[in-house]
Every structure is written in C-alpha cells, then in structure tokens.
Amino acid sequence: MRLIKNTAINKQLAAKFITRKDSKLLSEATDAAVVKHSCLHHINLVGFREVYKTHDHLVIAMEYIPGSMTLEAKATASGPMKEADIRPYFRQLVQCMSYCHSQEGYHTNLRLDRILIDTRAPQPIVKLTDFLYRGPDRTSSSSSSSEKGDDVAGPSKYTPPEQLVLLQVKNDGSMCDAGAIDVWALGVILHVMLTGRFPFLDKVQPGNVTARVMRRMALDEFEFSSKPFAQGASSEVEDLLQKMFQRDPEQRIKAAQILEHPWLKGAESTSEEPADPVTAAPMQSTQSQDDIIHIVKRARRKRLW
Predict the structure, then answer these.
(1) Which of 43, 66, 105, 158 could cysteine-pair with 185, CB 3.0–4.6 Å?
(2) All structural domains of the chain
(3) Which residue has better confidence, 19 or 285?
(4) Are 114 and 138 contacting, i.e. CB atoms less than 8 angstroms apart?
C-alpha cells in the first residue's frame, strides 16, 4: 500500500498497486472485486475512490486514514480489554460485515492488522481495509465461496475448521461458506480483545497453528472452553463466542444475528456513532461500473514485457 495524491481534488489517497505481470494477482476475480468494492458504501469500510492502470500496475485508490492505528496495536498495547471498551469497536466491525454480507461482499481473511481505527473523530471509528483484493498474503472472494489464494497452504490463526479439513486434502476451499469464514474470524478477533491471546493454538508451540492443531480441529477434537474467561467475563460474551466458534459452518451464527445478540444489543450505542452507517460513508468514486470494468480488463490484457 502506498500514499498518493489526487491533484484534482487535492487529497491524499491510499493506493494498492497490483502488478500486471502476474496473472494470479490480476484475473477475472479482480474485475468482480474492484466492482464490488466500488458498490459498497459504509462508514466502517475504507472507501473506494478510483482505479487506473499504468504500464506495470493496476492501481486501486482508496480512502486514506491519517494518524490511524490498527486494531491489533490497540488490542496488544494494553493487554485484555474490558467488555465495555470492546463493544464500540466490535459493534462497528460486525455492522460493516453484516452490511457487506447483505450485499454479497465477503472478506474471508479478516485479521486484527487489517482493521484500522480512525482516531480523528471524538469517538474512534473502525475502518475495515484490504477488502476483497487478492494478493500473495491472502485468500479472499467476492462471491459466496472463498477462492484459492497464495497462502492457502499455510493456515493462519483465523482459519476455521472447515478450511483446515480442505487444506488437509489439498483442496482449494471452494466449497467453504465465505460468510461463515468471516464470522469465525470475528470470533477470533473478539477472543484476542478479551484475553490478549489467540484461541486454538498449540500449547507446545505457543503462537503457532501446527499440524497437530489442524488435525484436532479438523476432527472436532477441540472444544471451546470458557476457562480463559474465568476472570469475570460475562455469560453473554461467552455465549456469543460459543455461537461464533460452532464447528459446523451451517450452525454458526450469522453476522446480522450477532448484532441481535444480547451482549451487543443490550448495550446502547454511543452518541457519536452514526444512525445510518451507510449514508454516513465518505464520498465514493465518480467512475461508473462500466468504466471500472473497462480499465481492469485493459490492465489484464497480455503484452510484451
């Protein structure tokens, strides 16, 4: 990600440069991803601005958040957070994912370091970034099934059991429910904010998702335990995590249902949170979908290098 300046509007933008030489990074999936992002408008999603091509790259310009910090930095700076402090961040994140899912937009590689906190407002605003665009460090999709990415052979701490099963048989994960993958990752994020630790890690090799962990999760030999929350966590948040860590993706709670869960619904939103996160989203691109598709397709054309 690089910082660029749009001289027409005199504003700085964050830009993702995707090389035109690598067909794995620039494919038909990119067309759908760029168009999908341009159609999504939510205050908690980094806004799409424009797309253009250079000789070597397809450039996707997005909203720039100066002075922001990652949710990872926030969660690890002070150790476990209080539930009351977690709710505003988590509510915004789930609102964004619920909206995206309702528009058939899926991230499938949510991580703490891909969530920004805009600290310019009186009440910090969560900004989901790295949405939909495929790269060497992620698997993501704009459809209801996740697509193979370059990191598919290496599970992360956010990988759900159904993906681990497919990874074990060297499947590309195409049968996984992308919405359920996002919800599992949301559960991991909430767990880290509550405890300062990732769930389902190898006790022998702390911090790692090892083959032994993969086997136990894939065979349903791991049971989520509330023991890490013995220091006073509410029964409501434990119940929510149980529902988010359901092994069967079909039984796993949906993003929209998380918003109705007592742990989130019982707490009032702060006065600074917008009544309508969609209409409160920053200005989007003036490019039409046809223009965007035309530019991306031109960038994918083969040429002599």
Answers:
(1) 158
(2) 2-63+282-297 (3.30.200.20), 69-265 (1.10.510.10)
(3) 19
(4) no
